[in-house]
Write a structure and sequence with these properties.
The chain is an alpha+beta fold. The chain has helices at residues 7-10, 14-21, 111-119, 126-130, 136-143, and strands spanning 25-30, 35-48, 75-80, 84-91, 98-107, 159-162, 172-175, 189-192. The chain has one domain (7-183): Roll (3-methyladenine DNA Glycosylase, Chain A), CATH 3.10.300.10. The protein is built from 5 helices and 8 strands. A hairpin with a 3-residue loop joins strand 3 and strand 4. The protein is globular. It binds a DNA duplex through strand 3, strand 4 and helix 5.
Length: 201
DNA sequence: ATCAAGATTACCT
DNA sequence: GGTAATCTTGATA
């Protein structure tokens, strides 16, 4: 059985943690339905409020972003566009306000639950199977992540990551981030080269 | 009290 | 390729 990632994993420097997140297994032990929902992380983006205008923490600490100013190992969930939640892994120290947006995953467990929540049905077309977790808000819809999960400690027993083999440099693609209007040239988006579950190639 | 923008998605042509 | 949907947050008054 794979081991849960510990505090020291998250407290490292942002971009190091970002690349190391690829391939790891995201687990949500949802007590409400008595299930352990699992998926493999295949795409992420890094944000750093100390130098990055696109980061929510660039303006300093606020009620919304305060968890990003904690030490690494917490979940930062935010609401946007009047509809969507997105989930991030907080990294680093208490000064910078750094976090990593979970952008796409490959479903591992409970396909039926994910399918029902995303498409209100369980018989999916091939295209829909790819479409279950390939976007930050899609992940939150399928996992049922919302304000209730804001600030969860990732070293506890509800939401956590499992150790997995490190993805080698030649299998990681680095690009500019998607869907932002500031600091658009920072090459802080990373995804697994061969994954078909990435949001955009 | 009011306002503009937003780390997106689904659906349209 | 373009855009409506929809509402919270943070800033300004």
């Amino acid at each position: 059985m794979n081991k849960k990632l510990k505090k020291d994993f998250y407290k490292r420097e942002l971009l190091t943690v970002a690349k190391d997140l690829l391939g790891k297994i995201f687990v949500f032990e949802d007590k409400r339905i008595n299930k352990k929902l699992k998926a493999k992380i295949v795409e992420i983006e890094a944000y750093d409020g100390s130098i990055d205008e696109a980061a929510h923490t660039f303006i300093g600490k606020t009620e919304r972003n305060k968890i990003m100013f904690e030490e690494g190992g917490f979940l930062y969930v935010y609401f946007t566009y009047g509809k969507h939640f997105c989930a991030n892994v907080v990294t680093g120290n208490k000064e910078q306000g750094t976090a990593i947006l979970l952008r796409a995953m490959e479903p591992i467990s409970d396909l039926k639950i994910f399918s029902e929540r995303r498409f209100k049905k369980t018989n999916l077309s091939e295209k829909e199977k790819i479409n279950i977790l390939n976007g930050p808000a899609k992940i939150c819809e399928a996992f049922n992540i919302n304000r209730d999960q804001y600030g969860i400690d990732l070293t506890a027993n509800e939401i956590y990551l499992l150790e997995a083999p490190k993805i080698s440099e030649e299998n990681i693609i680095t690009t500019k981030r998607i869907g932002i209007k500031k600091s658009i040239d920072l090459p802080w988006r990373f995804y697994i080269k061969d994954s078909q579950f990435v949001s955009r190639k």
